[in-house]
Design goal:
Structural class: alpha/beta
Helix content: 25-40%
CATH class of the largest domain: Alpha Beta
Number of helices: 20
Strand content: 15-25%
Number of domains: 3
CATH architecture of the largest domain: 2-Layer Sandwich
């Protein structure tokens, strides 16, 4: 009997794969080809990504360890204890690398362009006096020192709040007993303070100091009569998973609001301290937070590098940032009548952020204002703090249209914003639904029901990304606007399934999770495997954020072994092991980390030479396929299908910003082969958007570089000519 391979030989560990993704983000902070302030931004993103990883994923693993479980939930079946140990080792090394990037690479580079971060002790006397005055006037009034002793229990510190730990000595006491105090750095204060220009400074030079260092420098003002022996910065990261019992909750909004309050003071999972923290302070902290020594992460510099995003926002030096980009406006309509007539005639494809999100906003705005529109249905997962779409939905309800909005209250870290939108819409008469008990509604859909001259018609928008105007400028996503009546009726059935007790019916076009998407994917993968065995064209291409689901991965392995060529672009977690002889040698996986966050989901199946192409809201993860409401919509228009294929192939052909995922979960940076031209897919798409705008305005398009025609004209081997 042939021994079966271990799960660790078949699958990469999910959490370690995520850390590898974040390492790719950090690579951008180190890249000399990335503008300097963009490098600072990527460092800040890597730091905040790591925060969320600890709040959610590491917290979950620690819960499994505490429960004494022998097997984990990840495909590789690593035990929770072994997984936690591996995470700690990787995260500690990653933390050290982040601080090295800041201290050894970015700080010197910033200094060269006139952006300084001097140590406070090294600042000349005049500016030190100014700093003392600023502290007394602006900082001191909002500070509250907190003693830690038997009469003052350890304060309950908020999740990720920045603090100073202070070791004190009373020189008047006969006994040299150390006292410990905590000083919270209020979140109302900026984390960076720009100093006055020094005498004789080079024009344009700016110096900054961190607010926590200003407080640290003036601790004597908070503890008069005491001797400050030692101080260090620290913050604690807490478990931010929500424990919500939907089935027993009589008021889901109220229950969630109570959980959000609890989240701020969840169980500690990580302690970050500045390097050189006094052992007595560390000992007290570990006891107070009930953490192990392995949960302590020393920071050789600012404890929260995520706050460097403030520097990116403050500094307005265009030469140190990516050049501004104005998206192409694909379509403008003079009236609702013109819009609906155009959508009846032909579907419209949008590729954000290269194509402006205003087209989607105008679709909802014109529908809300059109007297022929009777109903609008819409999903909200992450709408953001401001949303013209939500305002137009409220306007539509006020005009007595039937407006139904499915608000996902459990969209992680957007819960409070979604609650606010839900309450505001309900007050305006919008029928707000919170989805299906036990499932997250992650589908991205808008449905408009209109009484046309020839009867009732359905118009809809289906996308891969959230209806969020801010992220639509930063994330790559695809959306389809269509008046196809067959698709429209299926979208209507999707909404009825969410808002009522009905089960999603069998559909000809849409694949809907959790009812049919998994089965549909597996059937299409199996069909490609059968075609390969029969000597027919067989290929699978895909783009998504994460690939985790065991059943899908095993189906891809099987297809690879039967001769199917598989090429995937996976931005984040990839539990599949590509390129393993006899298992996945026909599978290649790349990951792109660049200016825009790659977020679109595209599925491509060769289908014996008649390609099937889907835009989807779902990654190939168990949660998306089994525990969320998701949709995948086929692109039926041959020209639009060809364009989606071209976009997908551009991502797969990137040799500038792409990394190839290796079988052990690590990666290597791709470079052009000898004689091959460099190809940056995002740069190509930006230039293509500029060209299309120039053509729309009847102005000469900019000169295009080699291979940029890839975006405008699909490659023959992947194009669909409609036959």
């Amino acid at each position: 009997m042939t021994p079966q391979p271990m799960n660790s030989e078949l699958f990469n560990n999910r959490e370690l794969s995520w850390l590898e993704f974040n390492r790719r983000v950090l690579d951008e902070a180190r890249s000399p080809t990335t503008p300097l302030l963009e490098r600072v931004k990527f460092l800040a993103i890597a730091s905040t990504n790591l925060d969320e990883f600890f709040e959610i994923r590491v917290a979950g693993t620690m819960e499994l360890v505490d429960a004494g479980l022998a097997a984990g939930e990840n495909p590789d079946k690593m035990s929770p204890r072994a997984e936690l140990d591996a995470i700690r080792r990787a995260a500690r090394e990653f933390t050290q690398t982040m601080h090295s990037v800041w201290k050894d690479e970015l700080l010197p580079a910033l200094a060269e362009v006139g952006i300084g971060f001097p140590e406070i002790w090294a600042i000349e006397e005049e500016r030190r006096r100014w700093l003392r005055g600023w502290f007394e006037d602006e900082i001191y009034p909002v500070l509250t020192p907190l003693a830690v002793d038997p009469a003052h229990p350890f304060p309950s510190l908020l999740n990720k709040s920045l603090n100073l730990a202070v070791l004190l000595l009373d020189p008047r006491s006969e006994r040299a007993v150390h006292r410990v105090a905590v000083v919270q750095v209020p979140r109302v204060l900026p984390r960076l303070l720009q100093l006055p220009v020094a005498d004789g400074a080079v024009e344009g030079h700016r110096d900054y100091v961190f607010m926590v260092d200003v407080v640290k420098e003036h601790l004597d003002a908070l503890f008069p009569g005491l001797q400050v022996l030692h101080s260090c910065s620290f913050r604690v990261t807490r478990d931010s998973n929500l424990d919500l019992d939907e089935e027993s909750s009589t008021d889901l909004v109220k229950a969630l609001e109570q959980e959000l309050v609890r989240r701020r003071r969840g169980e500690p999972v990580r302690l970050e301290v500045s390097r050189g923290a006094h052992p007595e302070i560390l000992g007290r902290f570990l006891e107070a937070f009930e953490l192990e020594h392995d949960d302590v992460y020393e920071c050789d510099g600012p404890v929260n590098l995520g706050r460097l995003m403030e520097l990116y926002k403050i500094e307005d030096r265009a030469a140190l940032k990516d050049p501004p980009f104005v998206p192409h406006v694909v379509q403008t309509w003079e009236s609702a009548e013109a819009m609906f007539a155009a959508l009846r005639d032909r579907d419209l494809l949008l590729h954000h952020p290269y194509d402006s999100f205003t087209t989607v906003e105008n679709f909802v705005r014109l529908a809300a204002d059109d007297p022929r529109v009777l109903a609008i249905k819409h999903t909200i997962y992450r709408a953001g703090e401001t949303s013209s779409i939500v305002r137009d939905l409220i306007l539509a309800a006020e005009r007595r249209k039937q407006v139904t909005v499915v608000v996902e209250l459990k969209a992680r870290f957007d819960e409070e914003a979604n609650i606010r939108w839900a309450k505001r819409m309900e007050r305006a008469g919008v029928h707000v639904v919170y989805g299906i008990v036990g499932l997250k509604t992650h589908a991205k859909a808008t449905l408009v029901v209109r009484r046309d001259e020839d009867g009732m018609r359905h118009y809809c928008h289906l996308g891969t990304g959230n209806y969020n105007p801010t992220t639509a400028k930063l994330y790559t996503d695809l959306g389809l606007l269509t008046g196809n009546e067959d698709i429209g009726k299926e979208v209507a059935a999707l909404f009825n399934m969410i808002t009522g007790y009905t089960r999603a019916p069998s559909m000809q076009h849409l694949m809907v999770a959790p009812f049919a998407l998994r089965a549909g994917l597996l059937a299409k993968i199996a069909a490609e495997a059968s075609n390969a065995e029969a000597g027919r064209p067989a290929r699978i291409l895909g783009k998504m954020n994460s690939l985790v689901d065991t059943e899908v991965i095993e189906a891809l392995y099987d297809a690879s072994q039967k001769g199917v060529e598989i090429h995937l672009c996976i931005r984040g977690i990839c539990c599949l092991r590509p390129g393993v002889p006899g298992l996945s040698e026909r599978i290649r996986v790349v990951s792109i980390v660049s200016r825009f966050l790659e977020h679109s989901r595209i599925y491509y199946f060769e289908n014996d030479g008649d390609p099937q192409v889907y835009l989807a809201s779902a990654d190939w993860m168990t949660r998306n396929l089994d525990r969320r409401v998701e949709q995948a919509v086929p692109i039926l228009d041959p020209a639009l299908r060809a364009r989606v294929i071209t976009i997908l192939q551009a991502n797969l052909d990137d040799n500038v910003k792409a990394r190839e995922i290796l079988s052990d979960g690590s990666y290597r940076m791709l470079e052009p082969e000898p004689g091959e031209a460099p190809f940056d897919s995002q740069e190509a798409m930006r230039e293509d958007a500029v060209r299309r705008t120039a053509e729309s305005n009847n102005t000469p398009p900019p000169k295009r570089r080699d291979r940029l025609d890839l975006i405008g004209a699909p490659r023959a081997e992947l194009a669909d000519d409609g036959s």
